[in-house]
Amino acid sequence: MSDISIIECPRDAMQGWTRPILTEAKIRYINALLRVGFSVIDFGSFVSPRAIPQMADTAEVLAGLQLENTRSSLLAIVANIKGAEQASEQGAIRYMGYPFSVSETFQRRNTNSGMAESLDTVRQMNQLAQSGGKELVVYISMGFGNPYGDAYSLSMVLEWVDKIASTGVGIISMADTVGLATASQVGDAMSAVINRFPEIITGVHLHATPEGRADKLQAAWDAGCKRFDSAMAGIGGCPMAGNDLVGNMDTQFMVNFFEHKGISTGLDLQQLSVCASMATKVFADQE
């Protein structure tokens, strides 16, 4: 039994690279990740191929995944109702993920809709998810601040989370989309959300450089977070943010961080090492 849930995010690692990664390479890599024992694999997204060309083959990747002997569930990101309908038709997908930003600028960049309109989208998506036997995960993008000069406060975050909770969503993930949060900000925001909404599973999706990443993990853990997103080798970031890709939380670093503290991840560490080696090949010459 693990003490935490780790969500591996090859989709987030792949989506920003300009050079195509072959569908067959994605399938081999994700099948290897499925043998590690992650709680969830964020494997692809049903979004416009014009916006994110790297994800145009998500349906083909899904068809090639070996799901018979894995305990990992699959998550796909969706950005609009059309994408949610596509994902809801796929029986192998357990979770749909929707990015809801508390920055108006980023919400329009990312989903071509404002925050008020996106709240209605969340409501419709949650109904779709429930009718299809799935769960909706809402990512609170720019959850620790934004680089655009948009208004931000912790009270504003809580207000929007409250509105999202009112739609029936049971899982949110606070996202440091461009990696600007300090450990103190991570701790304050996670504590506030977890304490205010104990009925919601609250995770964290940190984009971070090696400097300070341990402090951010510790702050989230101390706040009561038990759900953590990461990506092998710390690769990736959000191409819609209009910034250099900051990088995801490195999976091996995060697993070692928790295991050394006696916090069980429940993962196959040998298979994790195999996947780390595969990642160097999958992403070779992709930068």
Structure, explained:
- This protein has helices at residues 10-14, 23-33, 58-63, 81-88, 104-111, 115-131, 154-165, 183-196, 213-222, 251-260, 269-282, and strands spanning 5-8, 40-46, 73-78, 93-101, 135-141, 171-176, 201-206, 227-230.
- The longest helix is centred in the middle third of the chain and has 17 residues, at 115-131.
- The protein is built from eleven helices and eight strands.
- Strands 1-2-3-4-5-6-7-8 form an eight-stranded parallel β-barrel, surrounded by five helices.
- Strand 6 (171-176), helix 8 and strand 7 (201-206) form a beta-alpha-beta unit.
- The protein has 287 residues and is of the alpha/beta class.
- The radius of gyration is 17 Å and the shape is globular.
| Highest CATH level, the class | Alpha Beta
Shape, per Cα inertia axes: globular
Query: How widely separated are the two ends?
Result: 37 Å
The value of Rg in angstroms is 17 Å
The CATH topology is given as TIM Barrel
Number of strands: 8
Number of helices: 11
Descriptive keywords:
287 residues, alpha/beta, TIM Barrel, eight-stranded parallel barrel, 11 helices, 8 strands, 40% helix
Write a concise synopsis of the structure shown.
This protein is an alpha/beta fold and 287 residues long.
Secondary-structure map:
Layout: E1 5-8, H1 10-14, H2 23-33, E2 40-46, H3 58-63, E3 73-78, H4 81-88, E4 93-101, H5 104-111, H6 115-131, E5 135-141, H7 154-165, E6 171-176, H8 183-196, E7 201-206, H9 213-222, E8 227-230, H10 251-260, H11 269-282
